[in-house]
Specification:
2 copies of one chain form a homodimer.
Chain A lengths: L1 H26 L2 E7 L5 H12 L5 E7 L4 H7 L4 E6 L11 H11 L6 E5 L16 E7 L6 H4 L1 H6 L2 E5 L11 H11 L5 E3 L8 H19 L1
Parallel strand pairs in A: 1-4, 1-5, 2-3, 2-4, 5-6, 6-7
Helix pairs in contact in A: 1-4
């Protein structure tokens, strides 16, 4: 029964995601869906990235959490346009779905944005199943989470267009094999681009920002 | 629609959880449901705990993962009875539900066990919603995950009977306030017992094991 119910939910989501995609195309904004476990450092990574990207690239952020607007408050310091979705009003949903996104995107106003980032709810499982009409998906994994995670949560790494291995400043204090985790990512998703970095220290941030800028410009030129 | 569907799924789960509870009572085995984000250190914590508990306390483990039997392989070294559930055969479920548990519990054989531990799928959201007929719930949070997690994922901390703050050996290398995270846990769940430890070094393991032993003996005496 549960599998059939899930199928219906995912079909309804896909219909809404197509509508979102049409809206984002019309607005000529590149949409990145950023996903990870709780505590992998998504918000810090975004704070650092936005500071570097703005104002040349005009960024908006939709932040998803079950409760609190902590992350939105942290991101607003960058002067990006930020809006928070709390899913406790939708029964505590464990992911952002397509139907959460469109109203927030309209609310934030996409007409003067180049890039809209959706910081999804901290969960390495469910968000991977829900298309929100995005142009690209990023998964963030931190080096404290263990090398086996790409093999244990393969869907997330399979649907990702880019992976970030965060908190590499902690490597000297951990029994963690960075080459092994990258090999495991590539085993489930061959040729996945992987950026190793520390959002805390800023090490390795630039190649990731270059990748993101190229994606944004390519969409704008393709439709300009 | 999604909320109604969820309600039906949870009701069906509750019915099965009651059946599990009756079975566990009949077998006189204490059942602990252990939950956390991916990579918080559940498996290492269990490996260390089982080595100390056995053979005086006879332990079995049901390990849930979407894919792989890595964790079961690691736990078998302790000589506990271990069985792995992979939810990829159930559509990649993001949590263990009551209907996953009974067959595995019968398969592992509970009649010669004092303690059955269910290592749930790494996810700080969904497993909290699914009663599996357990006697107690433990949540593990590691110090690399950020102090705000109890406020952002309150249901997990609200349903927990005990919390473990793991990886305290990393505190000297992090900008992390251990007092603040405990305060946040107590804000969502007053009087929640919290054990601070490092499963890696063994620091702080004993008080947690004492807590667990008392729980197991109390159930056995109550029903002996």
């Amino acid at each position: 029964m549960e599998i059939n119910i899930r199928k219906r939910v995912l079909e309804a989501n896909e219909t809404q995601a197509d509508k979102n995609r049409a809206f984002f195309k019309e607005q000529n904004v590149f949409v990145l869906n950023m996903m990870s476990s709780p505590g992998s450092g998504k918000t810090q990574l975004l704070c650092k990235s936005l500071t570097k990207l703005m104002p040349n690239i005009r960024v908006g952020v939709i932040v998803g959490d079950i409760c609190t607007r902590n992350d939105a408050d942290r991101l607003e310091v960058t002067r990006a346009k930020v809006t928070q979705i709390n899913t406790d009003q939708f029964g505590g949903d464990c992911h952002l779905a397509a139907n959460h996104i469109l109203a927030s995107a309209k609310d934030i106003g996409c007409e003067d944005l180049d890039l809209l980032i959706v910081e999804n709810i901290g969960n390495l499982v469910c968000p991977a199943e829900f298309d929100i009409g995005e142009d690209a998906r990023a998964v963030v994994l931190s080096v404290t989470e263990g090398e086996d995670k790409p093999l244990k949560y393969p869907l997330m790494f399979r649907v990702a267009d880019v992976a970030i291995l965060n908190k590499i400043d902690l490597l000297p204090f951990l029994d963690f094999d960075a080459k092994l985790v990258v090999d495991n990512m590539l085993q489930v998703h061959p040729r996945l681009p992987v950026f190793e970095m520390s959002a805390q220290t800023g090490q390795g941030l630039e190649p990731w920002l270059e990748w993101l800028k190229i994606k944004v410009f390519t969409k704008q030129e393709g439709e300009g």
